[in-house]
Every structure is written in C-alpha cells, then in structure tokens.
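pipeline: protein-struct stage 2 | run 1193 | RNA polymerase sigma factor
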Amino acid sequence: MGAHFAPPAVSTFLEGVISVTDVLVRARAGDGEAFRELVEPYRRELQVHCYRMLGSVQDAEDLLQETLLAAWRGLGGFAGRSTLRTWLYRIATNRCLNALRAGDRRIREAQPRIEVDLPQPTLWAEPSWLEPYPDALLDGVPDTAPGPDARYERKEAISLAFVAAMQSLPPRQRAVLVLRDVLGFRASEVAETLGTTEDSVTSALKRARAALATALPAPSGLPDDQREREVAARFAEAFEGGDVDAIVGMLTDDAWLRMPPLPLEYQGHAAIHELLRTVAFRGIRRYRLVPTRANGQPAFGSYLYDAHSPTGRAHGLLVVTVAGDRVSEFTRFVNNSLLGRFGLPRTLP
C-alpha cells in the first residue's frame, strides 16, 4: 500500500502535540529548562490573575513564584485530563485563596502621616492597599478570552475600578467571578478548580455579579485611545500649571478623588476643588507629571517642586479614569516606592 499523508493542518497539530509531550516528559524527569519552556507562555497571564485576586503587584509576584514552584513539584501528578493552562490556573487560584483566607499577605508599609489639615472628606473608607499595575507587565497577555462565557473585555477587567471592586468580594466569590466572567472557564472547570459543585459555582457567581454591579460605577463605555490620550494630556497640562479651576472643569459632576491607602475620598467639584486648593497646591508648589500607563489607563509619575529645592521629589503616582471627554476619577497612590515599578526615578532635575 502507498504511504498515507496527513493534511498540513492535522500534521502541524500532531507535531505540536508530540513536541509538548516530549517537553513534558523531559520536565517530569527534572529538566528545568523544559519546565520553563512549558510554563513561560502562561507566566504573564498568571501574574495578572493573581493581581486581580489580591490587588497587589508584589503579592501577585510572590504568588506567581509559589504557583510555579508548586507546579514544578507537582508535575508528576499532572494527568493531562485538562490543559496545562487550566491546571496552572487551578494551582494559582488555590494559592491565592489560601493566602487570602490566612491573611498571609506581605507586611504593609505604615499608613502615611498626614502633615496638613485635610478638608472633611465625602467618605471615610477602609484603608485600601490596592496597587496600580504597570501596563508593561500586560505585554504577552492574550487579548482574547479563552472561553465563550467571558463577560469583560481585557481592558475593562484590568481597570482600577474593576480590581478595586473585586477586593470587596469574599475570596471564593472573587475566584468564581474571575474564572467565569473574566477568563471564560466553564462552570465544570471552575467547580473542579475549587473542589465544589457546579450548583455552588453558579450560586457564588450570582452573588458576586450582584455585589460587583453595586460596587462598580455605571458603565459608560471604554474611551477610544486617541480621545483618552487627549483628555489625559489636557489634565496633565492643567495640573502642571497649577490651574485648579481647569482641573475641576475637566471632571464629571460625580468625579472621585482617592488617595490609597489614606481612607479619605472626595467626590464632586466642590469637595475636590477645596482639597486641591488648600492641600495639593498650597503655598509655592508646582508639579511635573511624567506619563506612563497603569491598569490600561493613563497614569503619571508625580514630582513636587517647592521653594526649598530645585529638585523634583517623588510625590506618588496618579492614575486617571477617562469617561468620554472628561475625567471621572483620579487616584493618587501616595506610596513613592511604586514609581520604580514603572521605571520612574525618585527625583527629577
């Protein structure tokens, strides 16, 4: 009989399966390079997953390393009933849940001292340890959801508002919502990941969706990139010019100003105007804003210049939320050590 040849697409698929199987065999035999070859395509997306669960870049990095170590040690138990990617997400999710339940989080820096009298806030909130996520770390993360059940676009699901709202959910609801609505895993896969039933997953998802709908601002659609850049540039120009009226004039009527981890939040033109006038721009103060991006949004390293020094000192990181042609929220993260994650210096000439 003559030789039989597989169609090119089938042949390519079979070659890929054989290649992955060969790498898996070598990794199970203790080949570290083979293991890295297996997991490297998923490293960035697993870190983003841990960040959504924990709200901290440092915690996400720590849990990613724990996940990969656990995968390395447990590779012999990977039976191939699911994809390697699903198996890795199972490990990462449960590691994050264990950390959340145990309160096993990194030691937080002391809450910054408030050196001036602040106006009465609109809201006293719990201290938030949410950190901004550098867009540079999103390189290599898939743009499309892996399943049909995903509800959120990638940009929406990494936004500051979304990740902040996620932190208000109980750990298991948080996991179910991310796995189902962000990543698009099937209910059966989520049930296996969490060691529970599909009915339990469905119930937790319903509660999580209801809670998130309350915590998230009303959807206004994602701004197009060009408009977002233009609005952010005008905001930075007004801020560097110390023009409080212009800054406030760019805000939506219900805009928020937040300063994690400080528990004070300001909403509306009057409240934000008063805070900027009496605190941010008090005396002879000026700022320089260096553009970057965080959580898929415009962001700026903030540097303060005053009468005592010609050098600009790090003054937190600003993340701007654009809605249409206005700013609906700007968040100043007061922890100056965050700037290094964005490749920004602590001082400017």
